[in-house]
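Hi! If you just cloned this repository, the fastest way to understand the data is to look at a raw example. We've pasted two of them here, unedited. The first protein comes first, obviously.
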Amino acid sequence: MALTPDDVVTKQFQHVRFKDGFDPDEVDDFLDEIVIEWRKALEENAELKAKLAAYESGAAPEAAEPVAAAPAAPVVAEAPAAPVAETPAEPAPSGSATATAGIIELAQRLHDEHVAEGEAKRNQLIADAENEVNRIRSEAEAKQREEAARLERERNTLEARITELRNFERDYRSQLRGYIEGQLRDLDEKSASTDSTPVSAIGL
């Protein structure tokens, strides 16, 4: 089905949220200009086709009769009649069709550029999101390793402190036992010495 100016006017595009793109108002204004020029080209094309049809039906030779009746140059009046009518009639529709095709190509190119830019933006957003996820994951893993290392250092420090306290307790108990045992020996020795002393020596 051929594309018409009304198709361009009534065409509805889906709005894309949270993505950059062309300004919809500018696109609409530009498409309006394309539609105006397109309609002018179609009207000129229709007019030229009507003139060509009129010429082919015999209207053009009748219009050329007053010129042929002039006594000054009867041969010259008949000779240019055909080329003058044929020259604008033959290439004109081709030029109008070319202009119409150019407008359609321009609109299609604008649409393709808009779609390509949207896809490029989408791919860029996806790439940025993936990079952000990788960055956050790397930072989390680094923090996890750092926290694990810190806890390991604290565990080693606590274990070393516990070992130190246990050694201190063992040494303290050993020293306390030795001191008590020494005191008991001293008491035993003093008690034995007192029992072996004569009564006269005490002064009784």
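Ok, and the second one:
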Amino acid sequence: MVLCAVPAAMALANRSSPVVVGLAALLFLAAALIEDRRGAWRNLSAPLTTPLGLCALAFLGWCGLSLAWSPFPGLSLKVAGEFTPTLAGAYLLARLAPGRMAPGAASLGAWMLALACAFIVVDLASDLALRRLLGGRIAYFVHNRPAMTILLIGIPLAGLLTMRRQRWAVIVVVALCLAAILRSVSGAASLGLVAALATALVVRLAPKRVALGLAGAGLGFALTIAPIEGDVLQRFMPEAAHQRLVQSSSRARVAIAQSFGAAVAAEPWRGAGYGTSARFAEVPAAAGLAPEFREMLAVGHPHNSFLQVWAELGIIGAALAGAILMLMLTALAALPRASHLPALSLVAAAAAIAFVEHGAWQSWWTAGLGAAIAWWRESTVRQPEA
């Protein structure tokens, strides 16, 4: 029930998912330990001994090691103190929830997701009347994080409901998710939606190897181009595109990407240190940059998680991140084809959002991904019901 409540909680309070996911993770952990302590430990430890798990641990280890040269160790520790518990909760939930959910969990999850979508649509249509009634912050963008969380969770939940042959529930969930995402002012959520739908179409029409190959190429491209994204956009993005994206502050985003890309070039190997983006204008790598670049570095993060990894963790961190992404797709390739559509659609949506939106270590994002993966893994361990 707590896991099902994640979208509704985010609609009411758009930073609440770490608390809700953490509580759900603790409840599943307690149940697993009571049920079978040794089995629970094997379930949690086994993935960490695989190539993917070892690579993920190496990436986290490099994040920790980078604190040694971080110019702001207090800031780095603060970011790690917020990210690490949420990551642990997301991992516990993704590993322990699948296979242990009650038979009606998918239906309850659909109702809670529908409630969150309806709340967003009604609130935006009424000029935020519901938020005024509840005393919340009055701004349209407060629904951006809930919209992105709804997209992440809606994809695997729709896949699970399809597997359960609950077609009407699928139709309602998809329709309300589309309405909430498209009604919101979140361009990132809309981009993620387009990426997910395009990927679903490719998975449906193309052979498995082609779909996985395209996914790998897309992820590799996003990671590789990140340090030069700003320069590429500055040179080739037409003025008409900037005019259409004026509400998304496209010019400022291009300038931010250029600034962080210049900082990557100044310290390419090891980066500035984990969690330093909030004060990136003050890191040593920024000292030799032009004043206009240093000014844009003060925004807090580059609005591109791939670029943030480059800037904070350098080539080594980016290489480890790339290895994790490719090993993830390799693991997906070994699963039945029925699992590929929701899995690759979720990957595409998450990657598209990460390329244009929030900071890499934000807890609400990590918690949302953990909940989405838990729902997807539930569909891989449950047989279709008659």
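That's it. A detail worth noticing about the second one: Residues 6-381 form one domain.
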